Amino acid sequence: MGDMIEETETIEEFLARCSADVEEAVRKAAAAEILPRFRRLAAHEVDRKSGPHDLVTDADRLAELRLTEDLGALLPGSVVVGEEAVHANPAVYEALQGDDPVWIVDPVDGTRQFVHGDDGFCTLVALAHRGAVIASWTYAPAREQFATAVRGQGAHLDGQRLFAGPPAPGRDLVVATSHPDYTTDEQKRALRALWTDGLAPRPCGSAGLEYLAVARGEVDAVAFSWEAAWDHAAGLLLVEEAGGAHLTLSGEPFRVTGGNALPFTAARDAATARRVADLLRTAS
Questions:
Q1: How much helix, strand and coil, in percent to the nearest 5, is found in the chain?
Q2: CA-CA distance, 67 to 72, in Å (whole number)?
Q3: Which residue, 247, 239, 198, 240, is CA-closest to 223?
Q4: Would the keyword Signal turn up in this protein's UniProt record (predicted)?
Q5: Could you give the CA distance from residue 242 to residue 229 in angstroms, rounded to a whole number?
């Protein structure tokens, strides 16, 4: 791992010096705690949290603990807001409102896929400061894909620059939406506006991988009805840096600190984001 951050060093300077160390920490956590359990989970390694579809595994817990230790050591004075830590103590989430740099961590995004032996899961890490996401790391270890983004410096997948570009004219827009298993009746009503001419909505898989698909120009937009920062922070920056845009129902970009008008959309270009947001607004 790299040397500790200097007292006078900015977040940007830290990233210039240590972004490769962050990537190494993510890869090591996946290699140690996630991949050895992929398609080898024992029944006692899987639990349910809030309901039958809200799963957590030993891979989630142990990968988050490892990342919390390693990322905190890389950037002393930073705090970690991880999905499992917040589940254990919701007050941890309040760090997103503070002045300290925050690592936003989802150790296994797409736990449902992971549990079922599907390779559509990833580890998500974002670095935020005072409510702004500065950098992100999206790692799909079973697919050997690693995407990164740094604000103002572009998005990359395995070293190749990502450009989402506008959708091809004349075809239906592919929009990944909140999965029905995870939505309330009210949220289903809001999202129903997307079932219209010119759009081809479908339930989303791992949010992180759907954002990557938008950044790659393989999916035109996402429309999500929840705002947990660990699901969205890394992917939203990836989409932005690939030339895309995101909007909430209020017409403002999504804020990782919360209080967003939901549902919201992220899309491969600003025009598509406006089109999807306008449709969502008609149903609200």
A1: 40, 25, 35
A2: 8
A3: 247
A4: no
A5: 20
